[in-house]
TrEMBL record, chain A:
It holds the Pfam family ATP_bind_1. It comes from Streptomyces smyrnaeus. Belongs to the GPN-loop GTPase family. It comes from the Bacteria. Gene3D superfamilies: P-loop containing nucleotide triphosphate hydrolases. This is ATP/GTP-binding protein. Keywords: GTP-binding, Hydrolase, Nucleotide-binding.
TrEMBL record, chain B:
This is DUF742 domain-containing protein. It comes from the Bacteria. SUPFAM superfamilies: Winged helix' DNA-binding domain.
Length: 201, 145
């Protein structure tokens, strides 16, 4: 495969960096904001979305069809790897009614983190299902809350019915090193997935 | 926008889409700009802002006046141009930096593309992602964090 963007050898200081994004998903209160904040300078990103079909059953717009927007806040982090490479992190909005935002976020994503809490494992099903269907490489990171019981990763893997190739690891989303390792796992997994898949991925 | 007299809880005084004159889609580029697409300021033909002087990379006043005289532009347009003159920024960066909703920023950037004040570079499409050297660079960069 040949990639125009990667031929940077003869351009010592590329004016425009390559940008990549990783999504951080998981149920409400599982530590997405904490994880993004642990490894990057976190900023809130507002999207003033025009209501779409997806949210119509929830947000009644009867009578105000012409202009109807709703504000969604997302976590947004930036990690500058070097002058030519920037990694962006996007915390996906947790509520189901904002699923329509996911498609946009997921397009072109390098990979994803699904944060899980062993006390509420079912809250991560939707995200796992989403990334599996879209063929987006993801790592499941179990955020080890102080008051939650610890389970071995294999138990979590079984409980989530995960494919053997999907990395599962335990993390502490508050710790920079731990959050960083989760991201490294995602990139490594993306790299392996890419190596396994033929060029038509 | 910054010195309005309501507190934050009251919400913005101006509804965000007022500055796009109600438009929720930009005319030109039509296609949705990716959040990590880079916005690059076009060279306006003027000298670079002198180091130290135009703090924050703002536009020189005469240029600002010239651009605003064209009534299709609002001050937020100029903020975007000024930001991106310092270094190319992603659509998400611009929105976070100016504290404007992404949808609004997209429309404004679309206008600026049409006015040839900025251009937008597409991020690497997903089919091209598996470039090992870049991914290794990311991994090494993360390890160094």
């Amino acid at each position: 495969m040949v990639f125009g963007r990667s031929k940077r050898g003869d351009r010592p200081a590329p004016a425009e960096p390559v940008t990549l994004k990783i999504l951080v998903a998981g149920g409400f209160g599982v530590g997405k904001t904490t994880l993004v904040g642990a490894v990057s300078e976190i900023r809130p990103l507002r999207t003033e979305e025009v209501l779409t079909e997806a949210s119509r059953p929830v947000d009644s717009i009867a009578g105000v069809e012409a202009k109807s927007t709703t504000t969604v806040a997302m976590d947004f982090g930036r990690i500058t790897i070097n002058d030519g490479l920037v990694l962006y992190l996007f915390g996906t909005p947790g509520q189901d009614r904002f699923w329509f935002l996911w498609d946009e976020l997921a397009t072109g994503a390098l990979g994803a983190v699904v944060l899980a809490d062993t006390r509420r494992l079912e809250n991560s099903f939707a995200a796992i299902d989403y990334f599996e269907r879209r063929g987006i490489p993801f790592t499941v990171a179990v955020n080890c809350f102080d008051d939650a019981e610890r389970y071995p990763v294999e138990t979590v893997r079984e409980a989530l019915d995960l494919d053997g190739g999907i990395p599962v690891l335990l993390c502490d989303a508050r710790q920079r090193e731990s959050a960083r390792d989760v991201l490294i796992s995602v990139v490594e997994h993306a790299m392996h997935t890419a190596a396994r898949a033929p060029a038509d991925r | 926008m910054t010195d309005h007299w309501f507190d934050d809880a009251a919400g913005p005084v101006v509804r965000p889409y007022a500055m796009t004159r109600g438009r929720t889609r930009s005319g030109a580029e039509g296609a949705q700009l990716d959040l990590i697409a880079l916005v690059v300021a076009e060279d306006l033909g003027a000298a670079e802002p002198e180091p130290g002087s135009a703090a924050g990379g703002g536009l020189p006043p005469h240029q600002e006046d010239k651009l605003l005289a064209d009534h299709s532009l609002v001050p937020e347009h100029l903020d975007i141009v000024a930001l991106c003159r310092r270094s190319p920024l992603s659509v998400a960066d611009v929105a976070a930096e100016l504290d404007l909703p992404v949808g609004v920023v997209r429309v404004l950037i679309g206008d600026l593309v049409e006015a040839e004040l900025v251009r937008v570079t597409r991020p690497v499409p997903p089919a091209e992602l598996p470039d090992e050297s870049i991914l290794r660079e990311v991994i090494n960069g993360l390890r160094a964090l």
